[in-house]
Design brief:
Blueprint lengths: L4 E5 L3 H12 L5 E5 L11 E4 L5 H7 L3 E6 L8 H19 L2 E6 L22 H18 L4 E6 L2 E3 L11 H8 L4 E4 L5 E2 L1 E3 H13 L7 E3 L6 E2 H12 L5 E4 L1 H7 L4 H8 L13 H7 L7 H22 L1
Helix pairs in contact: 1-6, 2-3, 3-4, 5-7, 7-11, 8-9
InterPro entries: Epimerase_deHydtase (IPR001509), NAD(P)-bd_dom_sf (IPR036291)
Protein name: Saccharopine dehydrogenase
Pfam families: Epimerase
């Protein structure tokens, strides 16, 4: 029986970044889980097809696991209906294996705040996605408190980086559009501070939580590089490309009108507050407990992200 198996639910950009990080840390036995059972481009890792929302599937997949990472999520429009069952299934799988469960979370549950975001903040989300995130976090922490499963939650802000396409507001419609010479699309006020997380830094933080038993039973904000404005991050992108692109910003009014016709705009309207005022994430708790956690400077992170997008575009154009 191998109790050094690390199971990663979800093979999106965060799951793949975590796979890379665990390999760097010398983890040999990694089990990736998704609905297709396929993982293009990596034939050196076990990939299992499964539906984590089915407890029986999750229990079978997690057999002999030492750490289970929950990096899976349904489509953005389906969170309230599908996310709780997905999380419950993964919880049951980790509990049956007596494995640690590390849950990759975001920041929606806090709702609107006028201060830097700290782990001690109450959950005051007004929208359904934020409330869904809050309920799942509470259920996971309650499961830890009663001794059902050992849990740690790692939270990060809007992320960008290799593999990040439609899963982020700083994804394809910014980096992809810029590389294609199109206007980039952003939300709200581009001149207020906003914490952005490089995807590899998020993965690094989650891997640390998986290794450290003292992380269990707690919520942690994963360290990000220095908080800058959206305009400053865009300028780093334009500097890397060697030319500026037109920036198209959507105001609350525009999003509100579009939300009458487009379901995605209705979902974005719920969390638009993040982009109207300073949105700064405090990660001092993590640093105090685990030491100075090296983060990737935005300039370097942007360079790596641009390189990844260029490779993707080159492959795409090569097929045409």
């Amino acid at each position: 029986m191998n109790k050094n198996t690390h199971v990663i639910f979800g093979t999106g950009p965060l799951g793949m970044a975590l796979l890379r990080e665990l390999k760097l840390r010398g983890v040999q036995d990694i089990r990736m889980v998704n609905r297709s059972g396929q993982l293009p481009g990596d034939d050196k890792v076990q990939v299992i097809r499964g539906d984590a929302s089915q407890g029986s599937d999750a229990i079978e997949i997690c057999k002999d696991a030492s750490v289970v990472y929950h990096c899976a999520q349904p489509g953005y429009l389906n969170w309230p209906k599908q996310f709780p069952a997905l999380t419950k299934g993964i919880l049951e799988g980790a509990a049956a294996a007596n494995a640690k469960l590390i849950y990759a979370d975001n920041l929606y549950m806090y709702g609107r705040v006028n201060t830097p975001l700290k782990e001690s903040l109450p959950y005051r989300a007004e929208g359904e996605k934020g409330k869904t995130r809050a309920r799942m976090a509470e259920e996971l922490m309650n499961a830890h408190k009663i001794g059902k499963v050992r849990v740690a939650i790692g939270r990060a802000s809007d992320f960008y980086g290799p593999g990040v396409l439609k899963q982020s507001f700083m994804g394809e419609r910014v980096f992809g559009f810029a590389l294609s010479g199109k206007s980039v699309d952003v939300l709200g006020n581009v001149d207020v501070p906003h914490t952005y997380t490089y995807i590899d830094d998020f993965a690094r933080g989650l891997a640390t939580l998986g290794q450290e038993d003292r992380a269990l039973g707690e919520v942690w904000h994963i360290p990000s590089a220095d908080t800058i404005t959206t305009r400053q991050l865009l300028q780093l992108l334009f500097d890397e490309l060697g030319s500026d692109c037109k920036v198209r910003t959507s105001s609350r009014g525009v999003v509100s009108i579009l939300s009458l016709f487009h379901p995605m705009m209705k979902e974005i309207k719920e969390i638009f507050y993040e982009f109207e005022r300073p949105f700064v994430v405090d990660h001092i708790k993590f640093v105090r407990e685990f030491g100075d956690h090296a983060t990737t400077p935005h300039k370097e992170a942007v360079r790596h992200t641009v390189s990844w997008y260029r490779n993707i575009l080159a492959k795409k154009n090569g097929k045409q």
